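Changelog note: in this version the structure field was regenerated for every chain. One regenerated record is shown below for reference.
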Amino acid sequence: MRGLVGVDLGGTKTAAALVEDGGVLRRALAPTPAQDGPDAVLALVARLVSEVADGAPYGLGVGTAGVVDPATGTVTTATDHLRGWAGTPVRDRLAGLLGLAPDTVVVANDAHAHALAEARVGAGRGHRTVLVVAAGTGVGGALVEGGRVLVGAHGAGGHLGHVPSAAAAGLPCRCGRTGHLEAVASGEGLAALASRYGVTVRDGREVAALAASGDRQAGRALDTAAAALGEAVGGWLGALDPDVVVLTGGMTGAGERWWRGVRDAAARTALPVAASTPLVPALLGSDSGVVGAALLSERAASGSVAVR
């Protein structure tokens, strides 16, 4: 079956799916050989794509961690989650492995793919300007305007976790700088914050569970993380003025206390005219990455583009 295929390439697992009209018809999933180098990762992607497409797809979209040059599909910057990933010409390598024309393959940042899916067929459907904020292991997202992801001059648009945050002053960020929002508002940041408050945890989910059970220090950490993200959202409401903000990622499962903290901080920080902008949960769950990547490939296959 030939069709549009989307790939969500992460440091832990890689998913591929055959997508039609925003719905998943067939999917394949496997652990990512993240520390085995680009050759192993790309070979896995090619195998999963062939499984779901029964051969060469009509169009292929890939969402991957890192900053991606939208013109060439090359990863320009990446963390050590995927060893040696920076500098990998993902588009051209996959086109060669699968026998595709390079212009039918689109590679984008994974948060951009997730955002496009939520804006087009998820919680942002029907709105022209959608800001998607992904708070999970890290913090990212994208602004989608008229069905197009605005990626910026260097493909780095939407790295929302790398704005300054007072709550993160002096704290290290994975990007190598300090004081960034991601250091407190991500799952990893929340766990680190709770540890500094004397709470022994492995991840942000444990912090949220302890906070829900009444642990005061875990609650303090959760409140700090939620307020930091909400204050940033309030600033983005004034700077970007979207119709709606869609929140996605693992942190959105932290419970009503977290949601209330984010919404309250956003409302008190935003310009009054934008303070009532709705903040809503994402709808597509784990399928958003593959669906968004397939939507990218939809436009490439038809000769246009879905990013700028």
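Spot check on this record: The chain is about 35% helix and 20% strand. The first helix runs from residue 38 to 53.
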